[in-house]
Design brief:
The chain has about 350 residues and is α/β, with parallel strands linked by helices. The protein has 13 helices and 12 strands. The chain has 2 domains: about 140 residues, Rossmann fold; about 180 residues, Glycogen Phosphorylase B (Rossmann fold). Helix content is about 40%, strand content about 15%. Helix 1 packs across helix 13 and helix 5 crosses helix 12. The protein is globular, with a radius of gyration of 21 Å. This is Glycosyltransferase family 4 protein.
């Protein structure tokens, strides 16, 4: 959600708008377009219940702080990035048009309040619309505004891509969350015959206190039995992600749930074929047939099939070259300005 929001803000600025971001998270360096909320007494990472308590305790003070920020910056459109984590459940009454970005369909207690308080609703994919409908929400007035690629990176030419096919590692990038399925993938890498680099990142949220630490322990235990897998924590800075993915032979996205699939899109944007399961939005994003930017594997075949499919793609130069080109061209629909134009049209 954070990276997608940053990409939307970038696209809006490129279209000539001013975009500011309000956040309760501490910022590593000052940014005039990032405003720190001070009334939320919370430390990260935390779980949903802890954040909900902090919002409740802040109460009217939080409303006043948000309203004052909107006034100070003459905000015309306010986008709440999520019902809970993006403060949609405390959407303030203000002259600015209000938009809820439902990146995921979260808890009903947050979402129902948020939906009653905003004028427009946007979602990153039709997958999210379907999930909302399954939960009994009326999505007739909702719009799809996909996530965008935040940082552009040069697309390796054909000779460079062929060299990567021959010698580069398979790469995996994911958050320490059970739905990202990193331990399950690494656990099936025992028969791998090619180096694989797996980088996991902490997030500001987790399902329960200590959940990310437990997930890391499972990753490390699995990697200890896979000599070809190099595992490291700490993530990669947003600015470096496309370059890192560009230097992969293939990127595996082993997720069990993906409302959009931003890592897959970022890999495709640099011409790196993606291998993933057929879950949620990933099949639509990666594509099928001659326009596919990768290989989509039935979930029932298990994580071993992801490794096997990756090695098969790498063993077929003609297929690999075709997937690489298709991946790049599919990604062009997700440039920040394109996404920003869709957003403006949706909330106009």
């Amino acid at each position: 959600m954070e990276r997608a929001t940053a990409a939307l803000a970038k696209g809006l600025r490129q279209l000539g708008h001013r975009a500011v971001i309000l956040t309760a998270a501490e910022q590593p360096q000052p940014d005039p377009d990032v405003i720190r909320l001070r009334t939320l007494a919370i430390s990260f990472p935390c779980d949903d219940d802890a954040l909900r308590r902090a919002i409740h305790e802040a109460g009217e003070r939080l409303h006043r702080e948000i309203t004052a920020a909107f006034d100070a910056h003459a905000v015309d459109i306010a986008v709440y990035v999520d019902a809970l984590w993006g403060l949609g459940s405390v959407a303030v009454q203000h002259r600015a048009r209000s938009v809820l970005a439902t990146h995921v369909i979260g808890h009903d207690e947050d979402l129902a309040v948020a939906l009653a308080s905003v004028e427009h609703v946007v979602a990153p994919s039709s997958t999210v619309l379907g999930q909302a409908q399954d939960r009994g929400y009326d999505t007739d007035g909702w719009s799809v505004v996909p996530n965008g690629v935040l940082h552009d990176h040069p697309y390796p030419d054909e000779a460079a891509r062929e060299s990567l096919r021959r010698r580069a590692p398979i790469r995996v990038l994911g958050r320490l969350g059970p739905e990202k399925n990193i331990p399950g993938l690494v656990n099936e890498a025992r028969l791998l015959k090619r180096p694989a680099e797996v980088v996991v990142a902490d997030a500001g949220f987790e399902t329960a206190p200590g959940a990310q630490g437990s997930e890391w322990s499972r990753c490390a235990c699995a990697a200890a039995h896979s000599p070809w897998v190099h595992l490291r924590s700490g993530g990669i800075s947003w600015a470096r992600v496309p370059a890192w993915l560009a230097e992969a032979a293939v990127v595996i996205v082993p997720s069990l749930r993906e409302s959009f699939g931003l890592v897959a899109l970022e890999a495709m944007s640099v011409g790196t074929p993606v291998v993933c399961f057929d879950v949620d939005h990933l099949p639509s994003l990666v594509g099928a047939g001659p326009e596919a930017g990768g290989v989509v594997i039935p979930r029932a075949r298990g994580e071993h099939a992801l490794w096997k499919a990756s090695e098969e793609v790498l063993g077929d130069p003609l297929r690999y070259r075709h997937l690489s080109r298709a991946a790049y061209y599919r990604s062009r629909d997700f440039r920040p300005t394109t996404v920003a134009e869709l957003f403006v049209k949706a909330v106009r």
